[in-house]
Each structure stands twice: as C-alpha cells, then as structure tokens.
Amino acid sequence: MRPIRTFNVTPTLPPSLAPLKQLAENIHWDWDGGTIDLFKRLDPELWVSSRYNPILMLSTISQDRLQAVAEDGGFIAQMSHAVERLEQYLQETSWYDANRQQPTENECYAYFSMEFGLTTCLPVYSGGLGVLAGDHLKTASDLGLPLVGVGLLYQEGYFAQYLNADGWQQERYPINDFYNMPLTLERDAQGNELRISVDYPGRKVYARVWRVQVGRVPLYLLDTNIEPNAPEDQDICDRLYGGDIDMRIQQEMMLGIGGVRMLQALALKPSAYHLNEGHSAFLALERIRILMSDQNLSFSEAQQVAKASQLFTTHTPVPAGIDLFPPHKVFHYLGHYAAHFGLSHEHFLALGREVDNDNESSFSMAVLAIKMASFVNGVSKLHGAVSRKMFGGLWPHLPVNEVPITSITNGVHARSCVSRSTQELYDRYLGPTWDSADANDPLWDKVNAIPDEEIWRNHESCRSHLVMSVRDRLYKAVKERGGSHLEMERAQEVLDPSILTIGFARRFATYKRATLFLRDVERLRKIVENSLGRRVQFVIAGKAHPKDIPGKELIRNIIHFTRDEGLDRSIVFVPNYDIHVARWMVSGCDVWLNNPRRPREASGTSGMKAAMNGLPNLSVLDGWWDEADYSKTGWPIGSGEDYEDQEYQDEVEANDLYELLENEVVPLFYDRNDHGIPRGWVAKMKAAIRLNTPAFNTARMLQEYATLGYFAASDRGQRLMAEGYAPAKALSNWQSELHHHWQHISIGEIYLSHDMELQVNEPLQVTARIHLGHLQASDVLVEFYQGGIDIDGELQGGQATSMVYRGQDPDGSSLYNLNVAYSHSGLQGFSLRVLPQHEHLSSPYATRLVLWADPDNVRIVIGHVESPSLAQVGA
Ligand SMILES: *Cc1c(COP(=O)(O)O)cnc(C)c1O
User: At the top level of CATH, which class does the domain 106-410+706-717 belong to?
Assistant: First the structure.
C-alpha cells in the first residue's frame, strides 16, 4: 500500500539526556577526548557508522538504547563532567583578555576561507589549506579571540576516494545532509531563514546561512542550494574545487561578496578581515562599494579604509597555484563594480595586475589581495622568501629582501592531532598546558623525565591501532567494490604491528613525488625484507584532484608496483585520506616521510602533527622542516639544494633517502636494550616532542597573527574611521598629491667626510641635499642604504637608516644628514633613497613609490657643505 503521507521520525531524547544535544552541537567535542569517549559509550558501532557524527547518532539511535543510558548512573556522571568541561571552557578568561590592550569596541576579526577542515563529519575541505583553517578557528576559540569564520557550505563537499580493481582513483560525491550535521540555520528576528543576495549578471543569487559552533568561535557558511535560485545557481555551492573557471569565479563571488553581506546581515562589524588564500579577495570590492555608498567616500578614500584593515595570507610558492581569471570574465561578472567606483575598464582590471598599465595579463586574485591588504604573509620562513621573490614585481624598486611580505609559520592544533593516549601521557608528565606552552616554558624540560618504557609502550599501542584500523578500512573497501573472498582475507593480513612503519600521506600532486621511494626496486626490496629481520613497511594515503591525471597515475603506479613485486602486504595504500585517517597515521607510524621538490611545499603540516605525536621526520628541507631542528628531531634528505635538472634531483634524493633508511633509520629503530626499548630512537622521539610541539602549534601561530596582524589592522582601520573618516580622507588626499608630485623629487649633492678609504667603525659623515619640489619634508623619509658590494658590483643585504632633516636652504633644497660607520671590512658601499611617509600610512612601502639616487647622475662632494641655513653640518 502506498502511504498518503510520510514523516521523518527521530528518537526522543529523555530529559535527563538533554545535555547530549548541547555537547553534540558544539564541535568542541572534536578536541575533547572525554566527550568523544562519551559518544562512543553511547553506541560504539553507530559512532563509527555515522562517521563520528554525534548529531546523526542522536537522530538515528534506537529509543531503547537511549532509555538504557538514561538509567545508567555512570553514563549520566560522565555526561555531566563533559558538560562542566564545556561550560568552563566557554567561560574561562583567555589569552586575548590578558594580551589585548584597548580593543576597539565590539572587536571582531572575520576569517575568510574557501574550505574548513574541522572534523570528519563536516567534509567541506580538501586538504592542508582546509585543515589549517579549521585549526585556526579551534585555536582562536582556545585563545578567546573575537574571530568569526566565513566560508561556503558544499552540498557534495570534496569527493570521497575509492580505487577500482586496477588501482585507478574513482570519485564518489556523497550528498551532505545538512540537517544531520553539526549545523544550525541562522534566522532573523521573525524566525525566518536569514538570507542574503549577491548580484550576478542579469540576476540575483540568494544564499542562506548555517552556523557551526567551534568552541567560542562561530563559523558561518553560505548555502545557495535554495529556491528561488535557478538550478545552475543552486549548484554554486555544489562542490569544492569542482567546476570550470566560470564556476570558480561564481564561487569566489559568493565567498567574498556574499560573505561581506552575510556579516552585515548578522549585524557583525569586523574590525579586521583576514583572507586565507586569495579566493575571497572580491570581498575588498564589496567593502569598498559599501563604504562609498554608506559613508559617502570616494573610491580612493574607501580603499584606504579597506586596505588598512585587511590581511592576506598566501599559501602557494608557484605562479601556477594562483587563481588567474581572464579579464573579460572578470569584467563580465564584476563590471558593475567598475561603474560604481567610477573606474575605467583598464583601471578596474589593474587592481588584479602586477603592472598597472599592462592591459594583457590575467586578473590575479593574489595580486588583488595584496593590493588590498596592509599585512601580507607567507606560511614558513622559506615560503616568505619565495613569496617576496614571486610578488617582487609589485615593488620593482625594492630589493627582494625588503618586499613587504613577511612570514608566519603554520602550525597544527595539538589537541586535534595528538592521539588520546598520548595526550594523557603528556597531561600526566607535563601538565595540561603543554598544548599551548611556548618554547621557553620550563615544562618542556620534563619531557626527558617521561620513562622511555612508557613512551615506547604507548607508541607501540598507537602503531597496533593503526594496523588494525588500516586492515579494517581495506577490508571494507574491498568488500564495497565486490572483491573476492581471497582479496578480503588478504586485506586483513596487511602490515605487521611490530615493525618499523613509515608514513606518507598528502595530496597526490606530482611535485610531492609520492613514488620517489620506488625508484630502485631491488634496493627498496632489501630495505623492506631486511635479511636480518629488521623489516620495514610503508603506509600511504592521499587523494589526487579529480582532473589531475598524472596524480592519479602515481596512485596506480604504487598499487601496480606493490602487486607486481609481491610487496602488497608491506606497502599499503589506504583509500580516502581524511582527517580521521590522518590522525591514525600521524600517531601510529614511526617515521613521517616527505620528499617534495623544494621549494614547492609552502609549509606542510602533517609532519608537524607527526612530530607532536613523537615521530621523527624524514624529509627534504622544505617548508616548516627547513626551520626545524632537523638533525635532533629527525633526518634531513639532502641539505637544501636547488636543482635545475629534475631527473638528476630525483636520482640524488632517492639515493639519499635509501642511504638514510639503510644506515640511520633502520639501525636506530632496531637497536634495542634488554627490555626491547630502542633508547636512541626514544631520545629522538623526545626531542621531536620537546622542540617541535611548542614551535609548530597553532597557539604560537595565532598569537603571531593576533599581535602582528589583527590588533594592528583593527587599530589602523579604527583610526582611519575616526571623526567621520577624516583621517581616511586626509590620507587619500595626501596620496593623490604625492603621486602627482613624486616625479619632481630629485637628489642633489651628497657631501662625504671621507673619500675612498675608511676603517672599520670609523665615523663617516654624510649630508644630502634633496629637492622636494611641492612636497614637504614631513612627506618623505630619506634613507642612507649601506651594505657590502658583491662580485657583480651590486649592494648586497643593504641596511637602511633614516637620515635626519636639518632644514631648508633659500634655494628650496632640504638638507639631511647622518653619521654612519661600517662594521665590516672589504668593499662596502651605499646608496640613498626617498620613501613616502604619513602618520596614517601603514608602512613606507604601502604606496609602492621609492626614489633611489641614480649612480650615473649623482654629485658626490668630499668636504664641507655649502649651506647658508646650516652653520656647519656634517663634513
Ligand atoms: C594535515 C592534513 C593535510 C595536510 O598535510 P600536508 O603535510 O600539509 O600535505 C591534508 N589532509 C588532511 C586530511 C590532513 O589532516
């Protein structure tokens, strides 16, 4: 019989279990092991089959089971403890309370990201960028920062990976059921769905807003999958990194423009905006538009305000990694902004171009983000240097080392990536603050006091857990694709819980060279099947982007290789790498392997997760590892060389990898004392814990973002908005005058007290005559720029020192002087330069104007300054 009506009937939570809902709705549980234990206890099988989703569990669990736990005193007590912990966490005074002096009123930092990797049951991330963004939110909550996340909610998220019998990656797109996920629909005062709209060519696209509560921090996600959007507009939030270039622009419009409108609709007024990668850079256009219409500002005035309060973090070390859009498409989708701003076609497109009058180049989201930010950073020291070079074209007159792009090295959220038993071990020996303690905290000395036996036994149990979990996952994967019984049996026999286990898990992009270790079959076989019984196994995981055929070929090559060589029990590929698999692997492997082509790995974070679990890293000196204490906490592959010839590089580095495994890693691991403990190995584990945990956790990272970025950006923005935006107007006015008159500045005579010979530290007096034209002395900074001379005759590693303004001569020229000295011997030199200066300018580099003395045209005078207005300055 066909029903005339259907209902979705969910279990009734007995009143005494009401707190379970409160616990499930705040994903704080993801990094509170005690609450995870509680959900497991509720129904261990359902916990796994729901993909660790407590909301789904509560809507599908049997009523009988609920009644049973409601009468279980032990369960109720455990639940009460979990609620107490959550409530205390939400209320405790924070790092922010203690460290932020004079916050602006209702201070709020908006953090925009295309993806967020918070927990397994919210699959709206693809990899490292997303997991980093997730850790950013969790840590902002830990530190009590007034931060809100902004992103998109994808109906299908990123794909789930499985392999066909041939080892070829297949993609599945499970539909996300938002109502059974830790999401709350935002509503307006009347209780209706809160909605925003964004203008697309010829139509409006609407979105509703979902909130994920991340401890104290809300993450708001936009969802276009609603009426009255046309089906193709509903699809804007279909898949992460799924569509063509039009889809990409449409998604980025929704993220940037929709995100700003959403914050407005939520009545939030962020004092700083952080762009995590360039995807959200259109937000600057919308902010400027709003400032212009609401505050009656000009484009340039509004831009000053937007820029002062925006921060941009770049994550890619290669131009190919940057979003570039064809200019006509940008104009098609966003041309109405040009009209609103009163900018010509070319002036508008120049916002996303490195060189202003270049009318050919694509529109770069990274360039737009940089031009609209007053703080820009890369994600490791090495990546900062690479970024200064990559974007140096925006400051063609600055030496590369002065390009104003700094670095804040990534980190990972300790409570999310360290296994439960290991956290308990650290809690016991180091105290509960180890997860955020800085490197100088004396608690790190206590790492050495943890008995070797205890660390080792704990680690061995993590390894066993990994092996069991991998077998289970493989078994299910074989079963799902209809594999034979024999195959299913074999899946349950892979790996050995007692042997040296090397982990490699990351996106299968070719530059990461997942198959480097397969280069020499016989040598690898000898390592794996070690004739002295010192065997080695590999656990490998990762997804290739659906369109990345070479990436998929790498996966297939590994599968074919292990089958052909009969090594499929010792070299195992785990399908569908996600946050959950990552957590098993970074805690249960013994060594974490990483061999990207330097400097392609901007930072890398999985190695940090491994280190916090006590794993030594075995890695090419790239990203974060380049700045770690790599010989104490692991092994470096190579010594940071750059190669021209990739084939040769692979040969050299594969050889280095084999040698390290044969001569260092394997012997150290198997060198056991009478109790079976590898003392030397455990010493390396302890060094990894002690040195890498404080250096590479997100507590350190977020404190840097706050003190260097958020506080200053909020204050800068606030200052420009004071007194009805008077400072913004003044700055904009000054800047247009500056651009107008800059070309008339010239550098006149330079008077020196010495000719060609100087001794180390001997004072040299320098006086310079500068013709400022219509500009005032207060508008500029005159700098003496000194350094050594390299073999090409260029100044190297120059140091700039401000010269002191001494007054003006009747001819209108201004005099500056300085006493300097050289602390190094050898061939040294100097130059002079003029930079703009204004009290509201975020930095002297912000206008991108610099005037250098022209070596071919400058006049040097040895001796006295002829200056009527100066008695005798300088020489
Ligand atoms: C940590 C993590 C990553 C990033 O790893 P990298 O070392 O930066 O490549 C990717 N995916 C998942 C699921 C992770 O947990």
Answer: alpha beta
Residues in the chain: 875
Burial of 827 (0-12, 13-18, 19+ CB in 10 A): exposed
Ligand 1 center to residue 508 CA distance, Å? 11
User: What sign results for the dihedral spanned by CA atoms 128, 133, 136, 138?
Assistant: negative
Which pLDDT score, from 0 to 100, does residue 347 have?
Answer: 96
Q: Per residue in 191-223, pLDDT tens?
A: 999 999 999 999 999 999 999 999 999 999 999
pLDDT < 50 positions in the chain: 873-875
User: Which fold does the domain 745-874 belong to in CATH?
Assistant: Immunoglobulin-like (2.60.40)
Instruction: Give strand pairing partners of 574.
Output: 541
pTM recorded for the entire structure: 0.96
Tell me, what's the pLDDT at 874? 43
Integer Rg of the chain from CA: 30
- Our mutation pick for probing the ligand 1 site, out of 410, 412, 506, 580, counting the most ligand atoms within 8 A of Cβ, is 506
CA of 613 to the centre of ligand 1 (A): 15
Distance from the alpha carbon of residue 179 to the mean position of ligand 1, in angstroms:
27
Contact yes or no for 379/409 (Cβ under 8 A): yes
Fold matches, 419-696 and 745-874: no
Helix, strand, coil % (nearest 5) of the chain? Answer: 45, 20, 35
CATH number of the domain at 419-696, out of 3.40.50.2000, 3.90.640.90, 1.20.1250.20, 3.40.50.1700? Answer: 3.40.50.2000
> For ligand 1, what atom is nearest to the CA of residue 417?
15
Annotated domain spans of the chain: 15-91, 106-410+706-717, 419-696, 745-874
Contact (CB, 8 A) for 697 and 411: yes
The atom of ligand 1 lying closest to the CA of 577 is 13
Q: What number of helices (H) and strands (E) belong to the chain?
A: 31, 29
- Residue 709 CA to ligand 1 center (angstroms) comes to 25
What was the pLDDT predicted at 875?
A: 41
Take atom 9 of ligand 1 and give the residue whose Cα is closest. Answer: 506
DSSP secondary structure string for all residues of 245-280: HHHHHHHHHIIIIIHHHHHHHTT---SEEEEESGGG
What contacts 408, CB < 8 A, 6 or more positions away?
A: 313, 377, 379, 701, 704, 705, 708, 709
